[in-house]
Design brief:
The complex is a heterodimer of chains A (854) and B (226). Helix content of chain A is 56%, strand content 15%. Chain A is built from 27 helices and 20 strands. In chain A, the strands form two sheets. Chain A has a six-stranded mixed β-barrel. In chain A, strands 12-13-18-15-17-16 form a six-stranded mixed beta barrel. In chain A, strand 6 and strand 7 form a beta hairpin. With 226 residues, chain B is of the alpha/beta class. In chain B, the strands form two sheets. Chain B has a six-stranded mixed beta sheet, with helices on both faces. In chain B, helix 3 packs parallel to helix 5 and helix 5 runs parallel beside helix 6. Classes of the chains: A alpha+beta (854), B alpha/beta (226). The interface between A and B is large, with 37 and 35 residues. The site of magnesium ion has 2 residues of chain B, from helix 1.
Chain lengths: 854, 226
């Protein structure tokens, strides 16, 4: 028999022995390694979901758009451009038109009245995507007469049914069907303004497309398969863009949607990273506990002739197997979440997501999970190499720590550990800068926690005096005694609290935008598109129901024609902002007034009246966001194109506006003198008590002035309230999920010393300690550990959340003290509960254990 | 006075009931030094556990100074132990995270008594460890650890002290010195001492020797008072 063969045989014998020996500990090791499961679950769910969304976008972009290329504008096309599109039609590239505008729609039978999005479409629309109607097949009939096909939400709102007659402007349409399914549009936006599809040729008869209307036009082109959309638009784009026509290809649309999903994906990506790291910490502390229990066994194995390398290999193999099982369980959970996710958030997704198993995400999750589990397990496992056969003769727990950090292998593992965290951070964060920031944040928090744990040990040693009751002194002293658990528990608990609380704070801050809109205001009925000569008539309608208009706000549409003497395009070029920037291109609906209103706040400069300007120049107060979009500041000159007439203004103040109250608010407010003679429409609001009066007022105003639109704001607020409620459920679920991530980590962290505390408790019992005394000893130790870990974690989480919100999501951070304190409290309670659980186990053991234990 | 009456202990192992102690009865007057001997598995440790109130019997009773231990709750028995009972174990059972001094103080601290430091100091000096007070158990030899355990056992001036093979982990000479120490402390303090041992020469130093076999007392001899 050759020597290597002999080695092989001995090797397999030792491995077999170790495996049999691990029989009882296997479940425990699996428990520790399964800390990784939730992290892997999050990873698999998020990556699979993201890839599902990507696929759906690719598959549905064409359906969503309805054509290969879309031209859109706020006005009809000029004759030359229109002739370009007309000529396409004759060259085998059909063009369909969609004219969209807002109008009141009222059912003549039920009398129901409601604001709707009117979409007047020509034959052929949509070129892609199937529209299913109820009753079936009605879409093909749409063009055959004055017919309308509506969203089901409108039928409900109007108390209407198929066959009713629907009044829109001055035309009555027969409702021939409801849209059962169609690509695009999330449910939430349809509730706010349900759609009505009409044949385009009746659009002008409604007489709603005249002055003051906000119609938008879209022309969809269907290309033959031989022409790509990108090549097709290349020669056309400059011509159309010169006349403010937006040109979008299906490829661009695809990227746009993908970007809008990006923020969600970004956030979820961070959740995955956090879950994974927490899992890693759980594994590390759990395996550490495992290792302290294995010292005796390893010492015996060493006596029987195992080398330290063999010992290490045996336990690494065990950990790898258990890590694989833990990660695999995570994968299964992740797949389950992946299937649940689209159902949970379908109201917020701009498209239908079809769920398919994504093998790349699954194998990625499994590989990363096993890797993280192993790397984090390796550090404590390395200590097993240092167990000498002598340990079999005299146990010395401190021996494990003695040589730590002093050999090459330990350094290598440390490097692998840090490298893995960095790699993960970079992979998840998407950019080097962000990855570095994550890694720095994580490293910094670890350091702070480590320092505060050290400080706790130090302070505990100083403050304990013999005057304290024994049990408290004993508990506090456990914080600094040899082989104490202060550092590991504070680190695990604190980091857990830090991550969970950060997660929560970031969510809360991202959701804040929604909460603002839920703000209340008394005015609940708004009328707009009122023409000058209709004001008196509307007043009398309101008066007949004992109501009154709360002032008329003039609305003037205008566009930016020059900034500081340069054309928008030249200005954009000089500022390095994209030429198609929305603020430079949009049609501003502005007003003029002398006073500032309650929903506004000046953030820079002064309100009208203090600046000395020449007669040719008027003062302008601009809202912050268009100002920052256009790169303009107080003192800059903006020249407006007010329906053909140039009006020069100087920015004398910047404002922030609370849009949440749904009162007429404006990006641009001008001095009255600038717009004295400009053509305008008006908006007004009223505060009406009862829902039935609101409905009655809407009905009578539509009957007399079909061009005036009105909206029941309480309905809007309710709808938004509903959305906020749904989102809060999602947030609460995520918060619970994160808290659930903390539990196994905490268990692992205390596992290392649990056995010591248990053994000690039983001995104390033999020596005459009562249950209360032992409970108090454990309580004072765990309460202090819990309080320090949780509070430090909470303080850190404010810094972390601020960093994330500020640098990554680009918002302003508002600390949510109460929820963060609740999370800290929950973590503390968890630590105390684990302490008490240990106490309970002490009482389960009879003191006989002290006699029998050897 | 410690009395055992018809003590019986049975263990359920699977479907069979295993009687480890069968109707054991005896009285031990205050201040005696008693040894319990018998072959391995004869029930010595089990008997000791019952006498000390660490465990409850399947039948019979244990009375210590008129208190029937078998009628007390777990916590009440803990209080009795803290008050009257001391322990010495074969494996020493010192708390590894406490120093020698702190280990000795534990029983007094648990009763909330002051002056524990002075008492621990004098006891450790008495067992010859004056210069080892601040050592942790892992820094002490087996014999030294057992002496710390003896000091701890006497710290609450117990009426009765139980020792389960206190010399089992020690060499012959060290074991003999430990038993000598116990004898001296027995004389000085008037505590009852009950010691389980395999070493027949050590056992014969006791004033009375109880021999167990298969859970039954087969011999109970007292040395004529010297
Ligand atoms: N928890 C238990 N369950 C079942 N049987 C038990 C249990 N504890 C002890 N025994 C059995 O009771 C018998 C007496 O055990 P005990 O420990 O009292 O013996 P001993 O005389 O102290 O032996 P040794 O000298 O080896 O220490 C043994 O046969 C043992 O197997
Ligand atoms: Mg025994």
């Amino acid at each position: 028999m050759s020597v290597p063969q002999q080695g092989q045989k001995r090797w397999s014998k030792i491995a077999g022995l170790a495996w049999r020996e691990s029989r009882t500990a296997r479940r425990r090791l699996l428990l520790y390694m399964s800390s990784i499961s939730l992290g892997v679950a999050a990873l698999v769910a998020i990556d699979s979901f993201a890839s599902n969304v990507q696929q759906s976008i690719r598959a549905q972009a064409r359906d969503l758009m309805g054509g290969d290329v879309s031209f859109s504008s706020n006005a009809k096309l000029s004759a030359p451009l229109q002739s370009v599109l007309d000529s396409l039609n004759t060259h085998g590239m059909p063009v369909a038109t969609v004219v969209s505008f807002i109008s009141m729609a009222s059912d003549t039978r039920s009398g129901g009245t409601r604001l709707a999005q009117i979409k007047a479409v020509t034959t052929g629309y949509p070129f892609y995507g199937n529209i299913v109607t109820a009753p079936e097949g009605q879409w093909a009939r749409l063009q055959q007469g004055p017919y309308a096909i509506v969203d089901p939400a409108l039928l409900i709102a109007l108390d209407a049914k198929v066959g009713d007659s629907l009044a829109i402007g001055y035309v009555k349409f027969e409702i021939i069907g409801a849209v059962k399914s169609m690509a695009g549009q999330s449910d939430a936006s349809l509730v706010m303004a349900p759609r009505v599809f009409l044949p385009d040729r009746y659009a002008s008869e409604t007489q709603l497309l005249g002055f003051g209307s906000r119609a938008s036009y879209e022309w969809l082109v269907k290309l033959p398969p031989t022409i790509t959309s990108t090549n097709f638009v290349k020669p056309l784009r400059p011509k159309f863009q010169n006349e403010h026509v937006r040109v979008v290809t299906v490829v661009q649309r695809e990227t746009n949607i993908a970007e809008s999903v990006q923020q969600l994906a970004d956030f979820l990506g961070i959740v995955g990273l956090i879950a994974l790291l927490l899992g890693g910490i759980g594994v590390a502390s759990g395996v550490n506990a495992f290792v302290t229990r294995k010292i005796d066994t390893v010492a015996v194995l060493r006596c029987l002739g195992a080398t330290s390398g063999q010992v290490l290999a045996i336990y690494v193999a065990q950990s790898a197997v258990m890590g694989f099982i833990g990660a695999a369980a995570g994968v299964l959970l992740g797949i389950a979440i992946q299937f649940a996710l689209p159902v949970a958030i379908k109201n917020f997704l701009p498209l239908d997501v079809s769920v398919t198993i994504d093998w790349r995400a699954i194998s990625m999750g499994l590989a990363i999970g096993v890797w993280v589990a192993l790397v984090f397990a390796l550090r404590p496992l390395l200590a097993l190499r240092r167990v000498s056969p002598l340990q079999a003769l005299r146990r010395d727990t401190a021996a494990l720590d003695a040589e730590r950090n002093k050999d090459v292998a330990t350094h290598l593992v440390n490097i692998a550990l840090i490298g893995s965290v960095l790699l993960l951070a970079f992979q998840r964060a998407g950019s080097l800068r962000r990855g570095a920031m994550f890694a720095a944040g994580i490293g910094g928090s670890m350091l702070v926690l480590w320092l505060s744990a050290a400080a706790l040990s130090y302070v505990a040693r100083r403050v304990v005096t013999p005057r304290w009751p024994y049990v408290i002194r004993q508990g506090v002293a456990n914080l600094y005694r040899p082989a104490n658990q202060t550092r590991s528990v504070v680190l695990a608990l604190g980091f857990g609290a830090f991550l969970v609380s950060t997660l929560y704070l970031v969510q809360a801050n991202l959701l804040k935008q929604f909460e603002v809109t839920a703000a209340q205001s008394k005015a609940n009925l708004i009328f707009f598109d009122i023409q000058d000569d209709q004001r008196a008539g509307l007043d009398s309608i309101l008066k007949s129901q004992g109501q009154r208009a709360l002032g008329y706000t003039p609305i003037i549409t205008m566009k930016v024609s020059a900034i500081n003497g340069r054309t928008p395009a030249a200005w954009a070029a000089s500022q390095g902002i994209p030429a198609n920037n929305w603020a430079l291109r949009r049609e501003f609906r502005s007003t003029f007034r002398d006073t500032i209103v309650a929903t506004e706040k000046i953030t820079d400069g002064k309100w009208f009246g203090s600046a000395q300007l020449p007669d040719s120049l008027s003062e302008l107060s601009l809202e912050e966001s268009p100002a920052s979009e256009m790169h303009v500041k107080v003192g800059d000159i903006i020249t407006w194109d007010v329906q053909g007439v140039p009006v020069s203004t100087q920015i004398t103040s910047l404002r922030s506006v609370n849009w949440g109250r749904f009162e007429p608010n404006f990006f641009a407010v001008l001095q009255p003198k600038a717009l004295k003679d400009a053509p305008r429409t008006y908006a007004t609001i009223a505060a009406v008590q009862s829902d039935s009066v609101i409905a009655l007022l809407q009905r009578s105003s539509v009957a007399r002035f079909p061009n005036i639109s009105s909206m029941d704001l309480s309905l809007v607020r309710r709808t938004i309230g509903q959305i906020v409620a749904e989102v809060s459920v999602a947030v609460r679920f995520l918060a619970l999920f994160s808290l659930a991530m903390g539990i196994p980590v905490l268990f692992s962290a205390v596992a290392a010393t649990r056995r010591d505390r248990l053994r000690e408790g039983v001995l104390l019992k033999t020596l005459g300690a009562t249950s209360r005394q032992i409970a108090r000893i454990l309580l004072s130790e765990y309460a202090l550990l819990g309080a320090l870990g949780a509070l430090t974690g909470m303080v850190l989480s404010f810094a972390g959340a601020w960093g994330l919100v500020h640098f990554i999501f680009g918002g302003t951070f508002a600390p949510a003290l109460l929820p963060a304190a609740m999370i800290a409290l929950a973590m503390m309670a968890l630590a105390i509960a684990i302490g008490l659980l240990t106490g309970r186990d002490v009482f389960r053991e009879t003191p006989m254990a002290a006699l029998r234990e050897s | 006075m410690l009395s055992a009456r018809d003590l019986t202990k049975e263990y359920q192992s699977g479907t069979t009931r295993l009687a480890v102690l069968k109707l054991v009865s005896f009285d031990i007057p205050q201040g005696s030094f008693v040894s319990i001997v018998g072959p391995s598995g004869s029930g010595k440790t089990t008997l000791l556990g019952l006498l000390a109130g660490l465990d409850t019997p399947s039948g019979g009773s244990v009375t210590l100074d008129g208190t029937d231990l078998t009628r007390l709750t777990e916590d009440e028995r803990a209080l009795v132990r803290g008050e009257k009972v001391g322990f010495i174990f074969q494996t020493f059972q010192l708390i590894p995270t406490l120093t020698a001094m702190e280990n000795v103080q534990v029983p007094l601290e648990l009763r909330g008594e002051s002056g524990s430091a002075e008492r621990a100091h004098s006891l450790l000096t008495r067992v010859g460890l004056a210069d080892r007070m601040d050592h942790f158990p892992t820094q002490l030899s087996g014999g030294e650890q057992q002496r710390v355990a003896i000091a701890r056992a006497f710290s609450n001036s117990p009426r009765i002290l139980f020792a389960d093979e206190p010399t089992g982990n020690l060499d012959g000479d060290t074991g003999a010195r430990i038993v000598e120490l116990l004898e001296e402390l027995n004389r000085e303090s008037g505590s009852t001492i009950i010691i389980v041992t395999h070493d027949i020469t050590l056992a014969q130093r006791a004033g009375r020797m109880i021999r167990l076999k298969d859970g039954v007392v087969v011999e109970d001899v007292s040395k004529p008072a010297a």
